[in-house]
Every structure is written in C-alpha cells, then in structure tokens.
Amino acid sequence: MSVLIGRKIRKIYGKKSTAQEVLKGIDLEVNKGEFVGIMGPSGSGKTTLLNVLCSIDHPTEGIVEINGQNLRGMKEKALANFRREQLGFIFQDYNLLDTLTVKENILLPLAISKLPKVVAESHLKELVGLLGISDILNKYPNEISGGQKQRTSAARALITKPALVFADEPTGALDSKSATALLTNLESINQQKEVTIMMVTHDPVAASFCSRVLFLKDGAIYTELYRGEKTRQQLFQQILSTQSVLGGDGYDA
Amino acid sequence: MTLSRLVFRSMRKNVKHYYLYFFALIFSVTLCFSFTTLQYNPTVEAALKESGTATAGFSAGSYTLYFIITFFVLYANHLFMKRRSKEFGLYQLVGMTKGLVIRLIALENIILFVLAVGIGMGIGYFSSRLFAMVLLKMLEIDLVVKLSFSQEAFNQSVLIFGILLVVILIQMVWMIRKVSLLSLFTASNKTDERVKRFSVFHMMMGLVGIILIIFGYYQSTLLFNVEKNKIFNDLYVHMMVILGSTILGTFLVFRYSVALIMNALRSSRNGHLKVTDVLAVTPILHRMKSNAKSLTLITLLTGLAVGIMSLSYIAYYSSDKHARQETPYDYILLNDLGLGFLDALEREGIGYEKHSFRMGMVELNIKDLLDESLKDSTVFNFNEGSPTNVISISEFRQVESNVMLKEGEAFITGYDSMLEEVLSLNAERDIFVHSGDTEIPLYITEIRDENIFPHRVLLGTPVLVVTDQLFENVLNTENEEREFFSQVGINLVDKDDLAIAEVLYQQYESERGVVFEGFEDYPYVQPSYEETRKGSLATLGLTIFVTAFLGLAFLLTTGSILYFKQMAEAEDEKEFYTTLRKIGFSTSHIMKGIYAKQLFNFGVPLIIGLLHSYFAVKSGWFLFGTELVAPLVITMCLYVIMYGVFAVLSIQYYKQVVRSSL
C-alpha cells in the first residue's frame, strides 16, 4: 500500500527570464513501513523535493498524494491540520523551542488536538523509552546534548503516530556516535512500529540504514538502491560506488 | 564600495526596522517643537500675560518634555542597536575596525536624526497653531492664533536636539566599544533566562510584592484620613512610604509574582501545554527577568501620567462648581452696598431672583461636631471656637422652603467640601455656642450642603441656621464689630443677559467695595460668579494644558516602547513560528496564542498602572476639585483606547511575522 505518491513533480523558482527548474518531473511512490533515503549532491533538489512532498512548499506542477489525499488545492489551515495529524518532522537543527522542557516539546503537536492526557502520556512513555530519553524530560533544550535534542525532536515527530515521518538531514549536526545511535533508534522504530520514514541525507552511513535509497541528480531521479537481503555494510558499499559514479561534486568528505 | 554608499545601502535595507524609530523620533521632535513654538507664540504670550505663572508653567512643562523625550530616544536607540548587534558583529568579522563601524553607524544615526528633526520641526511648526487654539479654547479666550515662526523656539529646539544627538552617539560608541565580537553575536538573547527550579525565595518575593502593593493602596486611603491614620503623622513620610512600597511592590510583582502564577499554571499542565501556554505563558516566563524592569517602569509611568492627567482634569472639570462654591450667586452685594445695581438691572429689563440675608455671629467650636477619635488629633488645634455666621431659618427658606426648626434646634450648612473630606461633621448632637458672654445650648439636627455666602465671608467656617427668635437675640446681644452683616444674592433668570449684567456689575464696583478698618485704601470688592470662574480657568487652564500635553507624551512614549519591545520579540520568535507552522500549527492557532500574550504585555501594565493612579487620585482628589468619577473615568478610557491602538498595531506586526515565517 502506498503512503506517498508523487507524480510528475516539477518545481520552478524565479520568474520567466530567470526561471530555474529545480525538480524536473519526479515520480515516486513510498509504501507503508518503508525507510526511504534521498541522496544527491548539493543543489540536486533534495530539500526542495522533501519540502514539496511534506506540503511545506507547493509544486509548480504535478500531484502529491499522502494516504490517498491530494494536497493540491488544500487551504493553509487544512494543510496545517493535515501536517499535524498525518506527518511528523525531524529537522537538521532540531527546531526545539528553547522555552519549553523536553516533555513539553515532545507533547507540543498535541497542544491543539483533542487526545486525552492519559493516552498522550502512554504514547510519550513508550517513545521516550524507545529513544532512551526518559530521564531528561524536565530539562530544557540548552541543557542537553545534540544527540538528545535530536531524539527529542524524533519523539515529537512520532507522538501523533503519523502516517509518514520526514527527516531533513537529521544527523547533519551530530557527531558520528550520536548519529549512529539516533539512526539505530529510527531503524528499530521503523521496523517495530511500521512507521514510514523518508529521510534526506548526504551521509552514506546514514543512508545505509534505509530500506531504499533514491539518488537525485539535477532535479531528476538518477537511480535507486534497495537493501533487500543485503547487510548494512553491503548497502553502504553500494551507496559509495553509486556516489562515485554520480560525480564528486558536493561529496568532499 | 565607499563608506557613504555602504551607509545608504544599509539604511535602505534597514528601513523596515527603522521606520518606527524614525516616526517616533519625528513625533517627539514635533511634540517638543510645537510646545516651544507655542510658548513663544505672540498671541499666546499676549493672552497669558495676565497669568503670572504662565512662563513658569511652560518652562516646567518643556523641561519635563525634554526629559521624557531624552529618556525615550535613548531607550529606543538602545533597543534598536541591540537588535542590530549581529550586523555590527558581521562588519567586524569581515575585518572592519571598531572605529570604522562606529563611524558607519554614527553617519547613519546623524542622517536619520537630522532628517527626523527637520521633518518634526516642519510638522511641529504647523501643529503648534492647533495646540495654541486648543489652549485658548480651554482658557475661553477668543483670539485668532496666527502662525508665527519663533527664532527663539527654533534655537532652543536645535540646541536640545543637538545635545540629544551627541548623547545618542556617545551611547552608540559606548555600546559598540563595550562588547566583544563574541557577545555581539549573542546580545539579543543574553538576558533571557528561565525560571527553572522554583525556589521558596521566589515564592516569598512574589507574595511580598503583592502584599506591598496592597499595603501601599491601603495606606493611600488613609493619607488624608485623620481618624484612622495613627502610624504616620507626618504627611511627607507617609507619602514616601506609600510611594516606596507601591514601586517596590510593582517590581516584585513583575519579577516574581507573575512568574509565580504562570509557573503554577504551567506545572498544573504537567507537560501537556495548550496553544496559549506555548505562545504566551512560556515566552513571558522566559523573558520575565529582562522585562521586569521595563514593565515596572512603564507601569509606573502609566500610573503617574493617568494620575496627573486625572487630577488636572478634575480641577478643570470642577472649576465651575468650585467657582459656585466661592461665589454662590451670580452677583453678590454685601453690607447693603451698591444696591443701585438692582435698579440698574430693572432699568435694563433684566429679570433676576434675589435672596437677602442678615448675618449674626456666634462662637462655634467645630470640635463639638467631630468624631470622638478626631478630637484628640494633634494635627488640628480645637481649643478655641471660631466666629461663625448665623442666619435665621425664615431667611434660609428663600433657598429651600421645606425646612423647619423647633425651639432650641439649629442646623449647619455651607461647609467647605474639601474640609468635609478631612474633617467631616456629625449632626444630631447637643452643643453650646457663645454669643457675647451668654452660652446658648443648641441641638444640631442636620448638616446641609446649601451654599449661601462667598468664600471671603465664610473663610472656611460653616453657616449656622437658627430659629428666628434666637437669631434676633444674637443680633441684639452681640456687640463685637462684624465684617459682614448683610448680603443680597442675585441670580439672573435668563443667562443671555449675562453680558449686560456683567457690565452693570462692573459699573457699581466702586460703590460695592467693603472697607475694613485699617485697610481703607484696599476695599474688598466681591467678584461676580463669572469673574471667579474665568479667574480660576486662567490659572488652571494652563496647568491642565501642560499636564495634558505631558500626559500625551508619556502615553506615546510608554506605548511605543511596549510596541518596540514587542517588535523585537516578534523578530526573535520568528523561528518559533517557523517550527510551529512546519509541525502543523496554522496561522490562526498561533495568533490565538499571540492575542493572549499581547493581552498580558499591554493589559497588565495598563491595569496595574490604572490601579496605581486610581488609588493615587482617590487619596487626594478633593484638594483639586469636587467631581471624581467623570474626569477619572474619561481619562482612563482615553488611556485604555490609546493602549488598545498600540496593542492592535503590535498584533498586526506579529501577524505579518507569523505569515512570513513559513
């Protein structure tokens, strides 16, 4: 079953004379329970694609359907509601509110929902247990480490039990140890709870946790890799060789 | 790129942030310049020549105005400099020296300032005519105000604003020099702190704040209450105690009590916050430390401004009533002098009503009518009785026909309303009055408030109304020389005759003069009601005008400071809104929280400020006039409306920020 369907998505920035086509007709489908990675060199349109798919940005042409609902033509308020109920977000720079404690940050999306407190509390317990942040619930973001921040952010993304979680470079600001810890967490949540995750990353290690990796080049899908029965290490090697085929531009690591 | 081009580029880019500061500057210059121009306007100067206090009033006004504006401009400048700290940091990071950055910003400031002063003076020049017309209207002077340019006013304003510019530049240099490159980058969020573990000390301080304010309010009700005020006999000390406890209390309330209440609310949510908690409660808590001082200041300024404006408005509002108290009849003829005035009125065919009184005098000790507790007060000396006018009941019936007195009874009327507040009299008592050597027992039936005699006749004493027989006895036994023995009070039937009657009354001036022994050259000439009223208007009008002007300046500065602060907060919180909108909060959800936040930011200083002014005004309003409610309510409503305008403006700004955040 497809959770996300994108058809012929094009995105053009700027006016006619200076128009720049960032996305050139992308088709993709994401099934329930998949962990999809999007990779590509800088300027290939990764983040634009993610923004368009997650309804923060509008495509110039094409259709985006999430859980069978077409996003085109939805009003701002309806879109906001849709995002809150169906989608979860993890950002590179965490986007936690400094004024709120970890617990308050995690429960933030429920601030305008009618979910009973008891239910919310049990969701919270389960998530913080899985992510290993149950003992920092009453701390403020500036008192915890980057890895903890990102796990808080992940918990916030998952608290509403969304159909689809979007992660934009979630490990971008983390050291490799915290990054691996977070990805392991995400992977196990993806497998245990069948949460569909879509992650933009430029880090081959991060991408190797995915069940499928899409490669973007100049606004179009270049190729895709499936993990299948391969080990993470094997996928990682495949990703590296695909990257070298794609060209070194942007991969200076 | 040359320095000047960089300056113009950055100014063009900053115009959005600047325009408010720019308008605020223009506005202050306008206010200042029109005030000084007004002061030197020949028409106004001529009109106010009679009033000796005019110049003093004006200069007191303009100094206060300069003070407010200096404070305001410095504050606004500080706020805007802080907001641009990142920009300055960037300049230094790319290799500009501090000196160059200072020159750059100085150039920007000078251009902005000179422009604002130029425009402000232009507007001020024209608006001064408007203000002059308002002033003359208040003083009921019919003169056409000409627009006039005053070199003196111009020089004075240029000097003041020149000095102000220098001060701003010094402040700017100091701000840039003081900070290191690193702190420049973090200046905008340095002062923020969160109330983490809520200590008992904070809770105590929160409670102390509320108690101090209540204590101050309670003491203010006792300020002129001689009965209950036992602790503070010295008025000055008492006022200082009230002022101190309210000011400290206000600060503690903002610093701790607000946090106390909000923290309680927040903990009760146990992590499950509502939209308003996220957008109002937690940001307010987050900023309370840095905002406490400015909110206290704004609250106190609001209280001060509303208080002063209310008091002067009370004085203006009651000037009619006050004049009536001083001169109860349109025209008064004393000691049977100038009775020809009556014939003159008849000759002109002017209808009038007259009340004639004969006055006797007894010794009455006010002490006998006061409350027990007041008798022991050390503030007043009640050992001797004071000469008190006596009239007969039958003559009193000219004023009010439905009054009766039995043998041995009497009542009191015409007691000064200001004294009534401090030393109120009680009826239904047996007292003794002295007429010559005889002691007369009287039962006081009631205290009435009809005013019959002008101030000069009463000199603060009440009037005793007695039975006709007793009155005759008093007149016969009395041998002491009295200043006044009779009065004819005249009221016009038709107020349209006022102009002619005034002229006639003037014509009899020399005949009306009451000559006292030893002061033959200075006879007392009773003014007409109209003259009394105009006279008090002339002295009060200017005071009221100046205080209203200052009140306006206070209002606009406090309002703009609140607005500027909110603008800065909105910019700071933009990332918040981005995050919230990404994870699914709609603009209307976010705005709901912001309404609550603005309600707090504008509402709480306003409410506490109004409460302060209410208690301040209530403690001593009777010294200024006779009507409390209407002037106070009108002033407060005006203030609330103006604050509302600022709140709406800030909400609009927030809306714009939230809309553009995604």
Average pLDDT of chain A, rounded to a whole number, is 88
Number of domains of chain B: 3
Number of helices of chain B: 23
Provide the helix percentage of chain A: 25-40%
CATH superfamily of chain A: P-loop containing nucleotide triphosphate hydrolases
Strand content of chain B: 5-15%
Structural class of the secondary structure composition of chain B? alpha+beta
- Give the overall silhouette of chain A: globular
Distance between the termini of chain B: 34 Å
Shape of chain B: elongated
Q: Give Rg of chain B in angstroms.
A: 32 Å
- How many distinct domains of chain A? 1
Spatial strand order of the main sheet of chain A? 6-7-8-3-9-10
Write the CATH architecture name of chain A. Answer: 3-Layer(aba) Sandwich
- Average pLDDT of chain B: 82
End-to-end CA span of chain A: 37 Å
* DSSP strand content of chain A: 25-35%
Pfam family, one (chain B): FtsX
GO biological process, one term (chain B): transmembrane transport
Subcellular location (chain B): Cell membrane
Keywords (chain B): Cell membrane, Membrane, Transmembrane, Transmembrane helix, Transport
Task: Describe what you observe in this structure.
The complex is a heterodimer of chains A (253) and B (662). The model of chain A has no long low-confidence stretch (mean pLDDT 88). Chain A is 36% helix and 25% strand. Chain A is built from eight helices and ten strands. Chain A has one domain: Rossmann fold (3-Layer(aba) Sandwich). Chain A is an alpha/beta fold and 253 residues long. In chain A, strands 6-7-8-3-9-10 form a six-stranded mixed β-sheet, sandwiched between helices. Chain B has three domains: 190 residues, no CATH class; 266 residues, no CATH class; 201 residues, no CATH class. Helix content of chain B is 66%, strand content 8%. In chain B, the strands form two sheets. Chain B has a six-stranded mixed β-sheet. Chain B has a three-stranded antiparallel β-sheet with strand order 1-9-2, with no helix packed on it. About 1% of the residues of chain B have low confidence.
